[in-house]
Amino acid sequence: MKLTCLSQGKGFYFPPSHVLDICGFKILIDCPIDLSTLTIFSPVPFDYNQCVEAQISSDGDSPNSSSGSFKRRRVEKYLEVSDLVCAEPWYKTALNWKLTDVSLIDVVLISSPMAMLGLPFLTRIKEASAKIYATEAAAKLGCLMMEDLVSMHAEYRQYYGPAESGVPHWMEELEALSPVLREIVLGKENTNLGHWQSMYSGCQRVHEENSDTEGAIYLSSSSFVSAHAMDFDYHSLQGNDVIIFSDFSYLHGGKVERKSVGHGSLDLSCSAYNEREAQMVPLVDSDEGSEEVDKLAFISSCIVNTVEQGGSAMIPIGQLGVILLLVEQISLSLEALNLKIPIYMISSVAEETLAFTSIIPEWVSKQRQHKLFSGEALFGHIDLVKEKKLHLFSGIWSSEFVTAWQEPCIVFSPHWSLRLGPVIHLLRRWHEDPRSLLVLEGGVDAELALLPFKPVAMKVLQCSFLSGIRVNKIQPLLENLQPKLVLFPKDLESLLASENMNSTPLLYYCENETLRVPRLSDYYEADMETDLAFQLKPKRMRERDAAMARLRGKLEIICGKYFLVSTNSSPDASQNQLLHWGSIDPDLLLAALKRKGIEGYLRKDTEIAEENYLVQVEQPAKAVIDISRTRTVISMTDNTLVANILQAIESVVDSI
Amino acid sequence: MAIDCLVLGAGQEVGKSCVVVSIGGKRIMFDCGMHMGYHDHRRYPDFSLISQSGDFTSAITCIIITHFHLDHVGALPYFTEVCGYNGPIYMTYPTKALAPFMLEDYRKVMVDRRGEQELFTSDDIMECMKKVIPVDLKQTVKVDSELQIRAYYAGHVLGAAMFYAKVGESAMVYTGDYNMTPDRHLGAAQIDRLQLDLLITESTYATTVRDSKYAREREFIKAVHKCVAGGGKVLIPTFALGRAQELCIILDDYWERMNLKVPIYFSAGLTIQANVYYKMLIGWTSQKIKSTYATRNAFDFKHVCSFDRSLINAPGPCVLFATPGMISGGFSLEVFKHWAPSEMNLVTLPGYCVAGTVGHKLMSGKPTRIDIDKGTKIDVRCQIHQLSFSPHTDGRGIMDLVRFLSPKHVILVHGEKPKMALLKGKIHSELGIKCYDPANNETVQVPSTQTLKVNVTKPFVKKQFSEISTHTNGKLECKSTEAWDEKKILSLLQIRDERVAEAILLMEKSKKARVMKEDELLPNLGLKEHKIELGYCFPISVQISSTRFQSNASDTTSWLHELFLKVTIEDEFNSVQEYSDHLKIGSFHACLCPKERCPLRNDELKEGKPAIYVCCTWSLNDEKLAQRVIAFMKGLELGIS
């Protein structure tokens, strides 16, 4: 088995991506897009005049600027709005499309909705023939996210007109980019542009991809749900229980997402770590849960304070679970204060997404499942919509939106990168209002994200949410799973050092490197039919607590598993030679010979080596047995005597 | 070991489904139903057959409930709360959400209407449901370290599932009730091609073959429409869940299209609350209904409102869904008493009614007068429409499923005895699968696959499959041993080969038994082989010149070479190989004896005759070869030019 880490990811929105090579099958685990790289682009509608003015004024400082001093300015000065790329965005994925032959990928496994946003890039390549597996819920939510992404991206298209053919101009002039942006484009190691792709072309395409995948999805909806036994049964051939930990911890300094592959003995209790569940409602266990509850309560109180003072709150968070909980929390607080402040949710898929969250009871936390069993709606948003406290809009251009709009208000709307979606327009409206509040997620480069909206007078609250598991949970998890080997990101090695991890062997992997995972066992597992087992004639070993038997059967492979079954064919007579081992004690042999009626004595001979013996047989006929450490030779004599001597030898030496 | 199947209910009948299966040392109870037709001890399965001590928790590994119908779940609160079973119970999410409805409805009918002593309370139902572990479709659940179960979509009603259970290599499926064709609100049953020792399937419509149900649905709509158009009232007795929602989707849709204003009522027992569950669980319905979740949830019925007792005799047409189904008592019976005497009205009946219910009486012939109980007689003048679509598979569907799964054995339950016997014969004759139809409280024993887990070494596997590749009867495409790789082996789903695998099974204490090639054994044990051979040292006459008699070392080589030349021209021994100090044929090994007094020598050299001694050893199975070579060599005379 070989593991190649394509990307260690950057938190919730950009999960890690790996390629796993098992027995010649290439499996791509997750295919996300790094949407944080969108910040290098200038949002639309971008006020071009402002940009030109800024450029002129900054150049005005040094009217005789040569190209050299121009470059120095780039390095030394803070980023300017005008530094951003004014073009239709391209998207950066984990996969390097120039280096990867996608036709070789046999299977794609998708672990979360976020992890499938890059799939259309893959499937639009003609040669791609991989089967794609995801849970139904992940596929549905992922599909909604893709639709939303495409519809938000359309705004750029409208602005910039039809796409440029070939490589966009900014990619060809990377030197002109400021170093900060260039690093975002190329990554730290200045690799290349192979990760970049232009947007998939429109909604229709996305739908097509999904209808492609759906057939496969239904087949395997258990693979991640049960946190147990993947549908592909490589286990019988592979025998390795390997867990791959993939980093998730840029934000939390110690929270790591788990992916497990090919584990054979997961206990059900691990389903608590199920990613989706953790995402929907991060109440995984009490201490983590209460921390998250406190965090949500704090955010909610900030938002309510803002609207109390006449400001509006903008929440461009993308984590669906957080949104659902915040909506509930905020509406409770508003109600307690008797405030009639509208909550808006603006997104092309807002209605469908919320409707979907109320029909997947199998995927929510235990507490929420109780709501199913007691006949209540899973989340509060259904009632809030009915009570007209929560308003759903597909965009800000509809007449319903314009008539319903009131300020102050609370808006949930994409996109957290502040480069796509309704959030751009609302920030333009509020950025200079010191009473208003923007809630950003941790991990977003706020400075860069807010650059086009400067000057920013509104309050900005940045907070991170738990996604993935904490380092201190790794050890208990591994104890529970008892894997034979754990693969862990190299740069997190130091994190583990503090934990007591000596019980499990670890291998470390690095981004863009292929790690060979050794076979842990020299054996394959096989099932032996009882029929065959009954035919065996086990023989104990003389000096060890072990037994063995000769086995005659057939080895078959059925559905990837080895079976040893009995056979009717009679044994080959020429193959009846016994295998002997160990040494022969001459005194024991003499005694054994005597029992057979054979008289003999130890003969001394000057010609033979020290550790060897000669047994001289006198009765019933003459014979010599020449015994050394690894060999015994019986001198040829009549057949009956030879047979008797052999039997005597058999009784004092191990054989099979 | 065998699989034991104790049929506690639904054996050669419909009602109180309950089968206890012992498989690989585990004991699973599939369904725990009650019988609607009985009001005495026969209504529940005879649990005493499971455990005489009454310690059911240790006697049973787990309970699996396939769906929320009372004949599958009706006895569960009794078994857990009254009999004291405290182990795990599995059912799907919808079944866990909806079963309490059915149970509570049934309990009310039992207590309120018939005045019987209740066998379990509302609290019992609540407590019982708390013990239930919900499962999702295709989710593999490890009940314990050995027993795995998995649910598959069964159609029939919302949340109905077939269950797969596996212990070691023994595996089985219990279908519960299922439907092989999709209907208005549910999809068709779906299952993987599993390797099964046993399939336990329902057989309600063992011999019926049905055509499309859409025609029958149209008949139903037509009858209802005709009745309300004529100002009549339509009574649809149903149980709270399942059929009610299915028929309601049909009517609501029709009302919408035809712009009808006649009210559709749900009786109190059939609360609109049930629809809240249906809305949340829409993911378990058919693809078509499922896709309505975002726009208008198909269970948001537009034309349905709740019914009030005072409306029974209100004038004007209406449609009323009332519980319980089969008019076995309760509110549906009360309404029936009022509406049955008018020929304007219509009563619909399900395809199957349990004997003893009013529904059953209405179905048998066309009675004009029905005795409800002592002193109550009702004139029946209303029209009767029997719903002929059913959420059960027909006989063809059962055969399709059995053929698809091709289990080693089939057990039929949940059907009528004569029809089951016919189906049993058909499965046996057409599919060649052993089939049984046990009666209640009978046990069927079927053999199961049993295997031992062993480890096999890589060289052993490699040897087996490389041999296939070099023999024509193998199916591998490998060209040579070198081409062998794991992918080739994996890519073939099934490889059967008649070649015999010779190996050694090594069993060491506290280690898994290992199967290996013979030559791997001793290195594995860290031991050295001890060869046992036969030996003989004998003289061969030589003719020599006087100069040559002053022998030296190089002469030995030349004598040996000469011996080789003599031996190799014999056809029988032409496989002889020459080495610097010995000759070899198979395990036969010959060298010029350097010893003065070789222990293997017993022929003494004849005085004065020049000769050399040849010392030979051979292993036991080359005995015959050795004899022939020695005889041949003894007859030689070397050194003759």
UniProtKB/TrEMBL annotation, chain A:
Ranges of residues in domain Beta-Casp: 323-448
Keyword list, A-Z: Cytoplasm, Nucleus
SMART domains named in the record: Beta-Casp
Family annotation (InterPro entries): Beta_Casp (IPR022712), Integrator_9su (IPR027074), RibonucZ/Hydroxyglut_hydro (IPR036866)
Keyword Nucleus assigned: yes
Record GO biological process: snRNA 3'-end processing
Highest taxon, organism lineage: Eukaryota
Subcellular location: Cytoplasm; Nucleus
GO CC annotations on file: cytoplasm; integrator complex
Protein name as annotated: Beta-Casp domain-containing protein
From TrEMBL, chain B:
One Pfam family matching this protein: Beta-Casp
UniProt keyword list: Hydrolase, Nucleus
SMART domains associated with the record: Beta-Casp, Lactamase_B
Domain Metallo-beta-lactamase, chain residue ranges per copy: 15-232
Location(s), subcellular: Nucleus
Primary localization class, coarse: nucleus
Single GO BP term: snRNA processing
Molecular function terms from GO: hydrolase activity; RNA endonuclease activity
Key word Nucleus present: yes
Domain Beta-Casp residue range list: 244-362
Gene Ontology CC, one term: nucleus
Nucleus listed as a keyword: yes
PANTHER family: CLEAVAGE AND POLYADENYLATION SPECIFICITY FACTOR FAMILY MEMBER, INTEGRATOR COMPLEX SUBUNIT 11
Similarity comment text for this entry: Belongs to the metallo-beta-lactamase superfamily. RNA-metabolizing metallo-beta-lactamase-like family. INTS11 subfamily.
Name listed for the protein in its UniProt record: Cleavage and polyadenylation specificity factor subunit 3-II
Source species of the chain: Aristolochia fimbriata
Lineage: Eukaryota, Viridiplantae, Streptophyta, Embryophyta, Tracheophyta
